[in-house]
Amino acid sequence: MSLKAVLFDFNGVIINDERIHLKLIDEILIAENLQPLRDKERQASLGRSDRAFFQELLDNRGRVVSEEYLTQLLNRKAQNYILELEKLEKLPLYSGLDDLIFQVRSRHLKLGLVSGAIAKEIDLVLEGANLAEHFSVIVAGDDITTSKPKPDGYLLAVKRLNQKYPDLNLQPQECLAIEDTPAGIQAAKAAQMQVLGVANTYPFHMLQRCCNWTVDYLTDLELERVIEIFSQKELKSKAE
Questions:
Q1: Is the per-residue pLDDT at 133 higher than 60?
Q2: What per-residue confidence (pLDDT) applies to 235?
Q3: Residue 50, exposed/middle/buried by CB under 10 A (0-12, 13-18, 19+)?
Q4: C-alpha–C-alpha distance, residues 229 and 225, integer Å
Q5: Would you state the CATH architecture of domain 18-86?
Q6: Burial, 127: exposed, middle or buried (Cβ in 10 Å; 0-12, 13-18, 19+)?
Q7: Is residue 186 over pLDDT 50?
Q8: Is 120 left (phi over 0), alpha (psi -120 to 50) or beta?
Q9: Which residues pair with 15 in a beta bridge?
Q10: CA 53 to chain CA centroid, nearest Å
Q11: Mean pLDDT of 103-126
Q12: In CA terms, which of 28, 29, 145, 165 is 20 to 30 Å from 79?
């Protein structure tokens, strides 16, 4: 299979905002008269959708809420996220992002984004960074009812790309997912995609065990080499 599409995760791959998210989650829990995040929970939040993670936090604290109330909490967090970003002089984007996007587009590959973050948070950052026009499809946490490590978000991205480009005939095996957490990597793998792990959140050696490629930074990615390996696998498959 040749490489046709590159699908980015958002938090931890495009923007370095883990500290902001954890702070906002704590603020909401405290406002709800609930215990703030425990260390184990902070680790568990990585790669998960806000909805799934908040539901788990509330369950663990014995709080039963309706879907409507949960949505209110998520919207409150999203509004506070926007306020936090507006305080910053510069968005905390990861280095090498612009160059990688340029490389992907210059090779006429489709570009997508699959994240558990809700759409308004993603849109704010992409618009603020002048990146929105580059992403053909965006699958946000409010587009699906499941969370990574389930593969649904990645499979929906493939479906949407095929709807947008009817001649593309994209298969999951023709996608490269860029992820930074075990939950995200498992989701992409479950969707039958190859995965590039970037060590922004977890150590290199942890990602190396479960990814097809691993880099310390996006700037380390040799896209031509990845494309070549995809092509070699396609030739091997045809020969068999």
A1: yes
A2: 58
A3: buried
A4: 6
A5: Orthogonal Bundle (1.10)
A6: exposed
A7: yes
A8: alpha
A9: 11, 93
A10: 15
A11: 95
A12: 145
Element (H, E) at 227: helix 223-239
Report the run of H or E that residue 63 belongs to, with start and end: none
Report yes or no: 178 and 196 within 8 Å, Cβ to Cβ: yes
Query: 140 and 117 in contact (C-beta within 8 Å)?
Result: yes
Question: Whole-structure pTM over 0.90, yes or no?
Answer: yes
Per residue in 16-39, pLDDT tens?
Answer: 999 999 999 999 999 999 999 988
Q: Residue 87, exposed/middle/buried by CB under 10 A (0-12, 13-18, 19+)?
A: exposed
Q: What is the CA radius of gyration of the chain?
A: 18
Nearest to 221 by CA among 109, 92, 91, 90: 109
Beta carbons of 161 and 110 less than 8 angstroms apart? yes
Closest CA to 132 of 14, 27, 5, 4: 14
CATH 3.40.50.1000 fits 5-15+92-239, yes or no: yes
| Cis upstream peptide for 151 (omega within 30°) | no
* pLDDT tens digits, one per residue of 192-204: 999 999 999 999 9
Is residue 111 helix, strand or coil? strand
Which part of the chain is CATH 1.10.150.240? 18-86
Which of helix, strand or coil describes residue 26? helix
